[in-house]
Design a protein that fits this description.
By secondary structure, this protein is of the alpha+beta class. It has 2 domains: about 30 residues; about 120 residues, no CATH class. Helix content is about 30%, strand content about 25%. The protein has a 6-stranded mixed beta sheet with strand order 7-6-5-2-1-8. The protein has a two-stranded antiparallel sheet with strand order 3-4. The longest helix is centred in the N-terminal third of the chain and has 25 residues. The radius of gyration is 18 Å and the shape is elongated. The termini are far apart. The protein binds zinc ion. Zinc ion (ZN) binds next to loops.
Length: about 150
């Protein structure tokens, strides 16, 4: 009994350590999974002042869905919906999308050229299945796009 618990604890600690190492590593990289802060009235640069002295640090907290305007991720591969590759209706590109999941659970696609369109065949459930954990907050949409390489 004790041994089993000790092993579980050790595994938990190791997983924690790995997750933390991963976080630190990714702090210096561009990551595909991001969120955009909801409060558009917050001037850029002062976001940290509004967060307060809570622990854990804001960087380590998972934002709740109510706190953000939407989630966003970069989708480098061709995006297949209903067995067809989704191409931008305006410019025809079919890879390197930014996929948004908005607070109302709608999913929007934005191509590299900035054409943005609502995609009714995708929803929040699809987004959650296909996105990783949120690890960045962005005060503005532009900041998020820049961070994702668009
Ligand atoms: Zn386009």
């Amino acid at each position: 009994m004790f041994r089993r618990r000790a092993r579980a604890d050790r595994e938990f600690r190791e997983a924690q350590r790995e997750a933390f190492a991963l976080l630190q590593m990714h702090a210096h990289e561009l990551l595909p999974f991001d969120s955009v802060r909801a409060d558009a009235s917050t001037p850029t640069g002062s976001a940290s002042e509004t967060i307060g002295p809570d622990f854990p640090p804001a960087d380590l907290r998972a934002p709740s869905r109510q706190d953000v305007e939407g989630m966003m991720m970069r989708w480098m591969h061709p995006l297949v919906i209903d067995d067809a590759v989704r191409a931008c209706a305006t410019c025809g590109v079919y890879r390197d999308w930014i996929v948004f999941c908005m607070r109302d659970d709608s999913v929007w696609l934005r191509c590299r050229a900035g054409h943005q369109v609502y995609e009714p065949r995708l929803d929040a459930a699809w987004y959650n299945r296909n996105s990783g954990p949120v690890d960045h907050w962005h005060p503005t949409l532009e900041d998020g796009l820049r961070h994702l390489g668009h």
